[in-house]
Amino acid sequence: MNFTLKQLRYFVLSAELKSVTRASQKANISQPSISAAIAELEAALDTKLFTRHHAKGLSLTAIGHQVFAEAKRLLAQADRFGQMTNEFVKGLSGTLEVGCLLTLAPLVMPSLMKSIRAHYPNLTVGCRELDVKEVVEGLREGAFEIAITYNLNLEADISFYGVRSFPPYALLSRQHPLTQHARVNLRMLADEPMILLDLPYTRDYFQSIFESAGIAPNIVYRTTSPQMVRSMVASGMGYSILNARPPWRHSFDDHQYAIVELSERLPTLRMGLVHLKDHVFTRAAQIVIKEFEMQNTGRRLGTTDPDAVSTTPLPQV
Fold first, then answer.
1. Of 76, 95, 133, 169, which residue is least crowded by CB atoms under 10 Å?
2. DSSP sequence for the chain
3. Burial of 250: CB neighbours in 10 Å, binned 0-12, 13-18, 19+
């Protein structure tokens, strides 16, 4: 089977833009060159990848969808290979994208990014703030090598190494009467208006907490923004249940909120590093892994971490 990375790149770009014309404009390559590359790829694979619609662009065939997904993975691996060889010749440089659960990003990424820049001035760590579902999709599509998230709905092809536990807590406005208690239970909150952090998998986790106690929460508001949750709670619009614990106790509009512990023994989320199993890390990724471990545990993960889902040690740097 004879095909080139260039053909795959033109095919993926055309599929993403649903148009050879737009692909040629973005790649600054003539339209006939892109059309010829796609035709050569279809001939090499002996299959039709696109359905052409007159004046309406392109759509992937059923096989085209499968080839598209695999082509993106292969191109991501090729880019990492280029980065690795460049690192060997020129040293660490460029940008390494790291996926991070959006609720955790403000707590862990700034210090990680700052430390890497201080020790490796030519290496920049980029952060993609995502929900759990998007983190997993990004790993599988090759958008980034490593990500930081909770141990929520991670499937067999994903390795997880836990570093810190985050038990759930009640978030209340500073003026709420229940803040007079050192601890509250879910039944004390059941009739209160709840503000739900409504992200994929996250919402299921919070609702399962109440289900385990046989309680139906009174969900009045839903939002996908952790900052919005804190602002609404601080304004007295309701309470929420969260896991990540920022060091500050005020919202963007400068209202204060309080953290109150829950008295029940509830499922605890664990923050950690995720990557595809059997992935070969670039040196830049190894450096970021080492710094993330040191900042959150003071030691290297692996067989010494009893709470890690996998006991295979991470790559030595």
1. 95
2. ----HHHHHHHHHHHHHT-HHHHHHHHT--HHHHHHHHHHHHHHHTS--EEEETTTEEEE-HHHHHHHHHHHHHHHHHHHHHHHHHHHHH-S-EEEEEEEETTTHHHHHHHHHHHHHHH-TTEEEEEEEE-HHHHHHHHHHTS-SEEEEESSS--TTEEEEEEEEE--EEEEETT-GGGGSSEE-HHHHTTSEEEEE--TTHHHHHHHHHHHTT---EEEEEES-HHHHHHHHHTTS-BEEE----S--B-TTS-BEEEEEESS--PPEEEEEEEETT----HHHHHHHHHHHHHHTSS--STT-TT-S--SPPPP-
3. middle
Same domain, 218 and 259: yes
The pLDDT of residue 128 is: 95
How far is the C-alpha of 97 from the C-alpha of 128, rounded, in Å?
7
pLDDT tens figures, 64-73: 999 999 999 8
306, part of any domain: no
- Beta-carbon contacts of 30 under 8 Å, excluding residues fewer than 6 positions away, are 24
Instruction: Kindly calculate the radius of gyration of the chain based on its CA atoms and give it in whole angstroms.
Output: 24
Q: What's the mean pLDDT in 26-50?
A: 92
Domain hosting 110: range is 91-165+270-296
With tokens 């499937």, the residue in question is 155
247 and 277: one domain?
Answer: no
Q: Which position has the token pair 């007295």?
A: 236
The answer to whether residues 231 and 259 belong to one domain is yes
Domain tally, the chain: 3
- We report the CATH number of the domain holding residue 191 as 3.40.190.10
With respect to residue 312, please indicate whether it lies within any of the assigned structural domains.
no
214 and 155 fall within a common domain: no
Residues 21 and 100 in one domain: no
Top mean-pLDDT range of 21-25, 86-90, 185-189: 185-189
